[in-house]
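thought: fold this chain, then report.
action: predict
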Amino acid sequence: MNSKGRTRHFVASLAMTLALGTVSSAALAMGSGSSWGSDTPDLSTIVEMIDAGKYDTAIESLEEMLKEDPKDANVLNYLAYSQRKSGDFESAAQNYERALMIDPEHKGALEYQGELFLQTGKPDMARENLARLEKVCGMDCEEYKELAAKIPQ
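observation:
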């Protein structure tokens, strides 16, 4: 599943969780429309921006969200992803690291940081992330498969 598919799957899962009324603390941390100020879009809106390639707009919104909760690993992961896609590898590296300091087993951050390592000529570090993903979710999880497919043999 590509990143758009994973993103859509995540948003659909979150919507179902909210609709069923069984909101976990993780789902609340992702941000529902009611948990952010009226001037700040919710995360699903930002994911749509990212899927549409509107990285600069997404970055601005994600930075606003981080002002409210600077320790949200999911927001940091989306921010780093958007920065990486915009070519700002230095900021992306910092924010993937921040996300992984908060949640060392964040599968998305491990995968995408691994992709950043590949983009910046660090395949050995990407392999380290792949090994971490294997420990976190095994070789059958999507994040492991996606990163493994991109690492040169």
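thought: worth noting. The chain has two domains: 40-103, 106-152.
final: tokens above.
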